[in-house]
Specification:
The chain is an alpha/beta fold. Helices cover about 30% and strands about 30% of the residues. The chain has eight helices and 15 strands. The strands form five sheets. Strands 12-11-15-13-14 form a five-stranded mixed beta sheet. The chain is globular, with a radius of gyration of 21 Å.
């Protein structure tokens, strides 16, 4: 476990991905299954070796297993719910929320939260119901930078990663360069799009010391669901304390979108 500002990351070292891993060679099936179920990936590359070859094999084997590390044009996630109707968070193209409701109802989905990153068409939303391709945010960790004399090849490779909109970090496991929780934790926190939300019981001034960690874009109702099913089912309203609000606390509804550092108090029937 690695802790970064109240957030606990579980780091799991997996067997190496080699050519043919997607076909099951060298524990490939187990490693790629682990990657598919992870929230994000840290892909370690040896700075002494052929950087582009390592990158090519790793990304290729992941893609053969339908795991992408390059962010697609649009990401859509449909989260089924037991109540609340259809709520769309994000931008729609050539369709309306009403169109989305009709589409989901045709698949017998009557209550759902549709999260969109990018700009989604109705086809994008429909594809998300069946597509088994997954996107995993990846941090490319370039190790042994302290013993590589040809720094130019590292710079060129990093420029390549930047053009591909991929995130990287130079480290030295031997010398302890950039391997501290503060450095790696900050990169993972930003890469995974996480926020910390602190909770408070009604009528109690004490704020929970441990935050609830959720994805950016999470709503008050998402927090209620994580805390207790009764809070979720019997949700009435919430109060939110935040420096971005004109006044705190502010009374909000279930669909209020939270941000990092917000304090929320949930009132249920």
């Amino acid at each position: 476990m690695m802790t970064y500002r109240g957030v606990d990351f579980q780091l799991i070292e997996a067997p190496a991905v080699i050519e043919g891993a997607a076909s099951g060679i060298g524990w490939g099936s187990q490693t790629l299954a682990l990657a598919r179920n992870a929230d994000g990936l840290m892909i370690v590359i040896d700075a002494q070796g052929d950087l582009y070859y390592q990158y090519s094999v790793l990304v290729s084997e992941l893609e053969k297993a339908r795991i992408h590390v390059k962010k697609p044009r649009v990401l859509v996630k449909v989260e089924r719910r037991s109540q609340g109707g259809v709520i769309v968070l994000g931008e729609l193209k050539d369709c309306t929320v009403r169109d989305v409701e009709k589409l989901l109802k045709s698949y017998k989905i009557y209550h759902a939260l549709v999260r969109i990153e990018g700009c989604a068409t109705l086809s994008d939303i429909e594809d998300s119901l069946f597509e088994n391709v997954v996107y995993k945010p990846a941090l490319f960790v370039i190790n042994k930078v302290d013993i590589v004399e040809n720094e130019k090849k590292i710079r060129e490779f990093e420029e390549f990663l930047e053009r591909e909109n991929l995130v990287y970090l130079e480290v030295s496991a031997d010398k302890g360069i950039n391997v501290d929780p503060e450095t790696i934790g900050k990169r993972l926190f930003e890469l995974l799009g996480l926020i910390r939300v602190y909770t408070k019981k009604p009528g109690n001034r004490e704020i929970a010391e441990k935050p609830v960690v959720v994805k950016r874009g999470a709503t008050v109702l998402d927090i209620a669901k994580l805390i207790h099913s009764q809070l979720y089912k019997n949700f009435r309203y919430a109060r939110v304390w935040s420096s971005r609000l004109k006044f705190s606390p502010q009374r909000v509804g279930a669909d209020f979108v939270l941000e990092d550092g917000d304090i929320v108090e949930i009132v249920a029937f």
